[in-house]
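Checked the freezer inventory, then went back to the computational side. Two predictions to log before the end of the day. The first one is the construct we discussed on Monday; recording sequence and tokens without edits.
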Amino acid sequence: MKTTLKTLVAAVAITSSLNIASAADYTMRLAHQLPGSHHVAQAIEAFADEVESESDGRIEVEVFGGAQLYEPTEFHAAVARGHIEAASIVNLLWGGTIPEMQVFNIPYLMTSSHQLEQFPASEAAEMLNNKMASKGVKNLAWLLDANNAVFTSSDNPLIAPEDFQGIKIRGLSRVFDAGLIAMGASPATMPGSEVYQGLQTGVIDAAVTSADAVYSRRYFEVQDYAVASNLITVYQNIIVNPQWWSTLPEDLQSLVESAASNAAGVLLPKTDEIDPAGIAKLKENNMQVTLLSDDQVEALSTAMQPAVEEAFIESTDDGEKLIELIKQL
């Protein structure tokens, strides 16, 4: 029933947008899963405003947030098949389609502000852009969602590898979870919408997500401790349908690419500091927050990274090459 309702909503929204946008030469319907308050959602709105303004209204960008049109797992197919022109898709969802996109789940491989600034124009990014193209979509931007992670828990803070022994924790992906297993934890697969209840009822003991998500999802109501570090990187990719893209004149293509680049630039961190605003919100809500020291980061990296790298390389064709390219940043 849920899927049927989503499909009906999508059909109505798309039909309405076609009628409204008749004055524009081109229409870009862009779907994403984020709430309007999310920093990436705000960057997407800024992108849409810039495209419309700089094109003098020749391109109308209609943003459908909060998974209004399709479920996040349907974004890729919807864009590739031309059902909508664009979507912003989190890299965590590419795992089964493009296993190499899981490279960002390797702990402490690519999280520094310098690496993040260099990455979009790198050979590593080009390799991944080409892999997206082979799956029927064009990537316009690498929008940084997060380059930090927070381990939340109730009984004790999860600081050292031995603290994870026997802990039931909501994992992120099969590749990342190899690192949790290496420390003795038991990762569980669970939709984000069910994590709060899982923590509340004790189905799981802990979770890993960004500081912003800990706050927005109110984990602080059911978890006492937060341990933060620049653990992994999460991107959102603005993807477009190649056939639609080819209909745009070159000047409009350049304009859209410039707006996408500007949106990505706004999201880049200025320092390697761990989300000060997000951490402050957790402290304000009575969570005991630990920011890992360099030695503590090294201990977690030593415990997790080899297992995750092995799982990543086993699941990919170009995993080793991609890791080496990223290490050169």
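The second is the one RB wanted added to the comparison set:
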Amino acid sequence: MGRDGRGGPGFDNDRRGDGRYGDDRRGGFNRPGAPGYIPGGFRDSREDDEIRDYDRIRRDRQEYNVDGRNYYREPGRIIVRDRDNYYIRHDENERFRDLDRRAYRSERRGAETYSYIDRPGGEQIVTVVDDDGRLVRRYRRYRDGRELMIINNGYGARGPRPIYEDVVDLPPPDIRIPRDRYVVDYERADARAVYGALTAPPVTAIDRRYSLDQVRYSPQLRARMPSVDINTITFDSGSFTVTPEQGRQLKNIADAINQAVQANPQEVFLIEGYTDAVGADIDNLSLSDRRAQSVATILTQNFQVPPENLTTQGYGEQYLKVNTQEANRENRRVTVRRITPLLQQQADQGQQGGSPPPPPPR
């Protein structure tokens, strides 16, 4: 695996690296005419989606150098090295294709790709990505034509921009709730504690609305929300496979998310993947991202958690649970946190003492 895969905010479209855009405002790696360009950022192929052997993923990885930066394309992922850090973006539609290929379809509209998952009863889940593969928005379309926005990643800055513009520099939050409520130990927690963490308001006031990319790549912003450490799932070295027994233990998490979504269909939960500190940076970041996606897929396949209310991101070894540079199973883990207040910044979610959540699962 890898050491210090610092999961970052996407890809730098500033070709000159000085904070100004070049003449080609498309910029970046995946632009028309650049080596390895693919409309929508990622190939939509059965072969890529069925790869479960990480050695094969590593062998299929291709490296490009564009404007002084190294880019690595592998099945379902693009990784860029910039200023000694690595940043990853994944195919936002991979998880949806895996869930139901017969119900999945996509089409190009200008520089954007619209993907659809059809559901019984006439509902559709629509995902829009730009030409770099960056999620723009995801929404649910009902049979009567109504649309419910779930993720609007186009909020805030638009168009080409340096990666650092998606990092929000905030001080650590002032945490005034008990530690076991701020980071819930899933193995020891009951259903009520899990539900409480996944419906809790931010631990400190949220000053404004943020984009999904800002949430993904700003650790002190994410730290404003409690989390559940799913320590019943730890991965074999070099693997992103969840065993059937580990998958069955996700029931309390799934029940809590399902009940929260039933009360508010716009809820969004971030599944975060991690590795230990052994190996190469790129492998570390890729593995952690795939681990998060594996857990999200099981939550939907086994427990009917709506996939559109989940999003995933890998962070490599950036946040070790056990501070060791040696191989450690506890560090190969996933966590989950509710990020809805960060995305929506609703008045009753911005601080402690807001409207009470619905009752916990029994």
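For RB: Confidence is low (pLDDT under 50) at residues 1-26, 346-362. The first helix runs from residue 46 to 49. Let me know if you want it refolded.
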